[in-house]
Amino acid sequence: MRIILLGTPGAGKGTQAKILSEKLHLPHISTGDILRQNVKQGTELGLKAKAFMERGELVPDELVTQMLVQRIAQSDTRDGFILDGYPRNIIQAESLDAMLLKEDVKIDFIFYLDADEAVIIQRLMGRLVCSVCGANFHIKNMPPKNDMVCDNCGGRLYQRDDDNRETIKKRLEVYRNESSPLVQYYQKQQKLYRLSSNEEPEVVLGKIMRIIEKRHDCLKN
Fold first, then answer.
1. 72-89: pLDDT as tens digits
2. Annotated catalytic residue 2
3. N or C: less crowded end of the chain, CB within 10 Å?
């Protein structure tokens, strides 16, 4: 089973990806993690990405997609994967589809998590980020076991400077403008499911699992 989770910052993609990964026994793939890993390991793609980053430029979509396809080609994705927050725009979606087609891989579900602006602001203003591995936590919703210390690597947690009300609103506007064509693109493929993610993670997970189970029942019949 191959799943893409889309949605604005703070919609709960990372949280749902983590829960679904454990429940469905599928690897959780985040493009941010892949990018950091390639740069850290000094791979060919990582070195190319690092050159852009050192110039203060965005890493090109094609380069990120190549890293993603390499990750998807690894043995642990044989039964599927959960892709968190990628693609972000129509260009990335078309590039991803083209590369997956070469690997004879198809996406089964695209879930667009849609939360109200007030909910997103509350979530992001309480977000904590690991200074070492980049993992996300939340002061209220997903606190670390030890105060301001990452559960995964023991790194120091911090709050991002741009996780403030004014900047968050601007980021939401940019994302929504970019994602509108993306939503239409996947709607035409009849794979996109738009869900409210205002509720607690367990409630949102229930919505996702009901859709997956219903689709599987239909295919069996």
1. 889 999 999 999 978 988
2. no
3. C
